[in-house]
# Entry
Amino acid sequence: HAKEMGSETNKKSPFFFTKSPSAYVPSGSTIPYPPGTKNFHHEMELVVAIGKPVFETDIEAAKLAIFGYACGLDMTRRDLQMEAKSKGLPWDMAKDAEQSAVLSEIASVETIGHPTSGLIELSVNGEVRQSGDLRALVNSPVELIAYLSNYYHLGPGDLIYTGTPSGVGPVLPGDQIEGHIQGVGTISLGISD
# Structure
């Protein structure tokens, strides 16, 4: 997806942004088309849920800090993102919209283990738009946790959306989004006026 958006990837220095608690919405919800955009995009992602406090850790300890995994949608005001990106500005207005972090039920590590491969797919109104494999993630969930733990104290309840396959695209009022990750779960979202 980074290449699709004209960005470079750097495994040693992953790029992050944050979302406010007001961004969270559970799978199965219907959300209004957000204000301030004419180009609202879907991004299907594997989400890792932190279960234990972790700070300045290595890969092995990062893995032990994981509670589980979920399906996520990072809904993005793409026009605002591209404008901010072109000016070298933060992406907050694009990425941190209310109800823009959709989350499925979290499947515990005890139940599903640590998924490292498997189909990740999203459709809009029955048409497949994104299809990839977890093996294509630039950084694994444990790598992301270890990296972030050098800058933040991570703890129970923290969620990390790990990246999306190519094929992101716009949604419109009336659209129904469905997604799944093999071995993890399913997610859905409706868009209203």
User: Anything to note?
Assistant: Residues 11 and 138 are 6 Å apart (CA to CA).
